[in-house]
UniProtKB/TrEMBL annotation:
SUPFAM superfamilies: NAD(P)-linked oxidoreductase
Binding site for substrate: H109
Gene Ontology terms for molecular function: oxidoreductase activity, acting on the CH-OH group of donors, NAD or NADP as acceptor
Catalytic activity: hydroxyacetone + NADP(+) = methylglyoxal + NADPH + H(+)
Keyword Transport: no
Name of this chain's protein: 2,5-diketo-D-gluconate reductase A
């Protein structure tokens, strides 16, 4: 089994550097994917209310060949549940759907600055942590000004900020802001919908290492030092995604991948996104 490095969070807990997400996996498929991933060696399972499969994710956790306390389970508070009371109720509901006594990490899914509720939502996460429902709390898609407001108004710094990162959208400003504040960066859409698979630099590294384009990009994420959560429904692909700890990219190769930056997002801009 692959030995997955752990990253220490600012609250003293730790998070596996490599995990998997269940976004866009249907209810029927999710339990088998979760169980298979844990069987292969994954310990980080990233879900969310809005994915619509929390219950089936929980079923997969119960079927998995690993005790609950060996797993790191994440969920997220959706935009329509922002505000103190709604967020506390949303965490209660997620725990019930998943069938767990606690979550390892809960994130505010988007800041939705036009609603101006993310500070109250953050206070709900703080209290859920104090109540033992959650071990670590964090955010997703937060920009530096959103982070600073949370910290200034509550005195509590997020443990994690999950943001879009891939070779064509490297989000360097937010990554640097996270590091400066002691926040672990976690990457969603880490493969960038495959848009950089056929670039000469990725193909050259794949040829040198005998790895796939996917493995090269996941290794790039690992060497950047953040946590990464690729998605797959295939056991073979899950195993392949995990097999990135036995090779390294050179400084020159890391720099060449950095040069693939175009500023083109796969997902929405956090300043503007406000969907229910």
């Amino acid at each position: 089994m692959t030995d997955i490095p752990q990253i220490t969070l600012n609250d003293g807990h730790s998070i596996p550097q490599l995990g998997f997400g269940v976004w866009q996996i249907d209810d029927e498929t999710t339990p088998g994917v979760v169980s298979a991933a844990v069987d292969l060696g994954y310990r980080l399972v990233d879900g969310a209310f809005i994915y619509g499969n929390e219950a089936s994710m929980g079923e997969g956790i119960r079927q998995a060949p690993s005790p609950r306390d060996a797993l790191f389970v994440t969920s997220k508070v959706w935009n329509s549940d922002q505000g103190y009371d709604k967020a506390r109720a949303a965490i209660d509901a997620s725990l019930k759907r998943i069938g767990l006594d606690y979550l390892d990490l809960v994130l505010i899914h988007w800041p939705c600055p036009s609603r101006d509720l993310y500070v109250d939502t953050w206070r709900a996460l703080i209290d859920a942590r104090e109540a033992g429902q959650v071990r670590s709390i964090g955010v997703s898609n937060f920009n530096p000004d959103h982070l600073d407001r949370l910290i200034a108004e509550t005195g509590v710094t997020p443990a994690v900020n999950q943001i879009e990162i891939n070779p064509r959208f490297q989000n360097e400003t937010v990554r640097a802001a996270n590091e400066a504040r002691g926040i672990v960066t976690q990457a969603w859409t880490p493969l960038g919908s495959g848009r950089s698979f056929d670039t000469p630099v990725i193909k050259d590294i794949a040829a040198r290492t005998g790895k796939s384009a996917v493995q090269v990009i996941l290794r790039w994420h690992v060497q950047l030092g953040h946590s990464v959560i690729p998605r797959s429904t295939s056991r073979d692909h899950l195993a392949s995604n995990l097999d990135v700890m036995d090779f390294a990219l050179s400084d020159q190769e890391m720099a060449a991948i950095a040069a693939l930056e175009t500023g083109e997002r796969c997902g929405p801009d956090p300043v503007e996104f406000d969907a229910d």
